[in-house]
Amino acid sequence: MSNLHHLAGQAVRQALEFGRTVATAESLTAGMVSAVLADTPGASGMLQGGVVAYQNSVKDKVLHVPADLLARVGSVDPDVARAMAAGARTELGADVGLSTTGVAGPDAHDGKPVGRVYIGISTAAGTSAFEYSFTGNRPDIRAAACAAALERLLETLSA
Question: What's the angle, vertex CA 153, arms to CA 149 and CA 159, rounded to 5?
Fold first, then answer.
């Protein structure tokens, strides 16, 4: 966990330095990203909130991920990651929306292999998604996804 806390500490410092706020939308990480950010002193100055959107119904109703997109591609998809990040940013009133969706295992999901993860980032300038393929057991994949999300957040805040 220390690497996660190190990344979170850097992200919180960057956000505070530039006066940026962050909101999360998490599926496979189920709140890990926001929890690690909140472990960092100063997080209350930058973390708006987070949505654990484990089920597609929550992705649709709370984050406004289009139901037809979810029906067509499933939950593990770059467009879904982008929509989740944008939904978190707008619904929670943040400068940056950060999302995680993927397959932690032990079984494939929506035709995607175990370890496939998408991280979404949304700012006023636009929304992106990044694809990862992680290996390991369920906790390993969830921790790797959390670290990747924090790295993408740090990169966005530093830009």
Answer: 145
The residues spanned by each domain of the chain are 2-158
What is the tens place of the pLDDT at every residue in 7-38?
999 999 999 999 999 999 999 999 999 999 99
List the one residue out of 18, 45, 8 whose CA is nearest residue 149.
8
- Tokens at 29, concatenated: 């990480």
- Provide long-range contacts, Cβ within 8 A and 24+ apart, for 143-146: 143/1, 143/4, 143/32, 144/117, 145/28, 145/29, 145/100, 145/102, 145/104, 145/117, 145/119, 146/4, 146/29, 146/32, 146/33, 146/36, 146/100
Tokens of 31: 């709140």
Q: How many CB atoms lie within 10 A of CB 109?
A: 17
Q: How far is residue 156's CA from residue 151's CA, in Å, rounded to a whole number? A: 9
Q: Please state the CATH superfamily assignment of the domain spanning residues 2-158 in this structure.
A: CinA-like (3.90.950.20)
- Does the global pTM surpass 0.85? yes
Using alpha carbons only, what angle is made at residue 133 by residues 47 and 65, rounded to the nearest 5 degrees?
A: 50
